[in-house]
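thread: overnight batch results

M.L. [08:02]
morning all. the overnight job finished for the chain we discussed friday. pasting input first so we're all looking at the same thing
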Amino acid sequence: MARSRISPLAILENLLFVWFGFSAILLVGIEIASIPPFLQVLGRAHPLLLHFPIVLVMGGLLFWILPKSYKSEAYTQIAPFLLLLGANFSGITVIAGLVLSSEGYEGDALFWHQWAGMITFWGGSFFYFFQKRKQNALQIPSILLMLCIVLTGHWGAAITHGEDFLLAPLKTAEPEVTLAEAEVFEHLVRPILKSKCESCHRDGKVKGELRMDIVEGLQKGGKSGPFILAGDLDNSLLIQRINLPLEEEEHMPPKNKTQLTEEEMNILTAWVNSGATFDQKVADLPEEHELFQFASKTFDSKQEYDFDAVSDEKLEELNTFFRKVNPIYPESPALELSYFGIAAFDPKSLSDLQEIRTQLISLNLDKMPLGNASLDFLNDFPNLEKLSLNFAELDEDQLERIPNIESLKELSLSGIQLSEAAMERISAMKNLEKLFLWQTGLSAEQKANLRAQLPKTEIDFGFDGSDVILPLNPPRIKQERILFSESLEMELSHPIPSVEIRYSIDGTEPDSLSSPVYESPITVTSSGKIRAKAFAKGWIGSQEVSSVFMKSGIKPTEYLLLTQPNPRYQGDLEETLFDQIKGENNHTSGEWLGYSEDPFVAELMLKESQSISELAISLLYNESAYIFPPTRVEIIGWKNGKSTIIHSEKPEQSEQIGEIRSELLSYSLKDADFEKIQVKLYPIQSLPPWHPGAGAKGWVFVDEILLN
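M.L. [08:03]
and the structure it wrote out:
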């Protein structure tokens, strides 16, 4: 009697019923079942298994979806086998997924993913058994089963990556947050938890009974104890787990996940240590606080204003030889205004400011003869934040009537004798953040009373110089021009004839021992920078004074800008670089090219006869207007079609807000005969923590390139 042979096809068909039964048992009893370790391994293999059955089942279904394909010979040989094999692997994948769901997964996404997976398995199996009988009626069911596979994958991705994973690229970006608006938890802590923790601790996947996607879950903690304890680093589960060695099983995030950076760990630690609040604003923290320092690097601290900017034409009309109006930083609608020239000042000209009354936030009337002009006009400026009246000509009646402007944050009245009535008026200005009262004739008692009445105001009464060695004033530098063709003569002077002036023109800082002593006018024949200090016995050496000098050089045969400046600061475009006009120390003068978003890149074409030994770049620095040294300078030369990086330097960055000044960066080219030179200047992308605009983008301003 011949032994019957069991075909592989029959084995696969019978296995489908095994998977049916096993999956049905798990579907009903997974919550009460005790899963042995070997099955847990199978469960965790679920993500590895799921892609294979998807390909097989969808490959088999295509034969019924494509018109007339089920009548082909390929269908009869390939499609049923693909469907059978895919259904078997679907069954194994479903079982693995059900086992895996016992490890802390829950939520709507899990529910729909489970049932869609079961329907895919059951549907594929039934489809296989009935496909021989009703071939002509299977096209629509095939499409529906395909759709079910897609939805299963979608809900699976929602469990693994979050509900918004699929459509996240299409969502509108959240508005940028300023430092003033930023909240400690929402904008510093939550982004870390979302990127490094929530994939395992959120709706649909709650490992360790801990949810981290909602505040209530963080406050509740997990099965191992409190997640956070305000101010208690030792007993907060969060701090314990992130500080465990990476090899430890309980280290978080797990070692197969992206780890926290040092800064992220510091932020979480500082948050817990400072009370782990969920509604505190960054602005309410002291500036020296760790979290404030972290936030200042992240968020744009530029003051946002909701009023419109004044037109360039109106600004040009208001700017005169005795009055200067500028945006407080490039592209800001807020304006600052200063008056110059006592003889030319007319109090009636203050009425011109009505046209910018909304935009004016800073007004400087230092030393101006205000006569009998009423200061009530200041009430017309609803957003005025800073008022400077140092050494202005004001009588007692004017001082007693200084308006108490609600928006005013800073007031300067140095050099003015203040009466009791004036002091009473000033003491009522409770909104002031800073008050400067140098040389105002106040007694120690009056100063103490004022401090008591304005406890939240930073008051500066000036420096008491009794029995103190004072610093010298800096020397003066006199030069007829900055740009010269052959040579330039410079003179140094000081109001105290007996002081010793030391200087340098080689870039070094002048000192009292080794630097040259100034004795007669200095003649220079190349570009550079002179630095000078004054020294005298019994005095502290003066602050440094400096000035650049620039030798007008060779003009390239061709030159062009490869990146475009900001439209508000585009000067005369590439012609600005070689027009032999030195820009004023004012970024709005129209003589500068301003870059913030993109680096400055210029390309210079040279003749064979133009042998260049030095390249110098004229720059403007004004930290208060966000204009900083470039973070990197690159100079690239081309010769015989090959490029060479001649210089790649990171200039020294500013450490404090300095005066507005021109600077010169000079580089030796070693007399190389280049066909083409490219100059790149990279603006600072994040202002340093000490700057009022910490974290904001800075600017690079350039006006000349000199080739010699």
